[in-house]
Amino acid sequence: MDDKLYRATRIRAAEAQKSLSRYIADKLREDNTDGTQTGARNPQLEAIERILAGPMWDVTENGRMPTREERNARR
Known about the structure:
Order of helices and strands: HHHH
Oligomer: single chain
Number of helices: 4
Number of strands: 0
Helix content: 40-55%
Distance between the termini: 68 Å
Number of domains: 1
Shape: rod-shaped
Largest sheet: none
Radius of gyration: 26 Å
């Protein structure tokens, strides 16, 4: 951080009645829009969440799960 940015940030932190580290941490939390620690997207996690949130298929037959033979029967 250059001196000019440091002084400006220090002034804003003082105006907000916060320490410099608390002020920076709060600003980073505000910028963190997706809920992750780093703020980076995780495309694999997003894909898994889409799959799990997808339609739930009813695989029961007459209120019970099919047997192995019923699941693997050639139709």
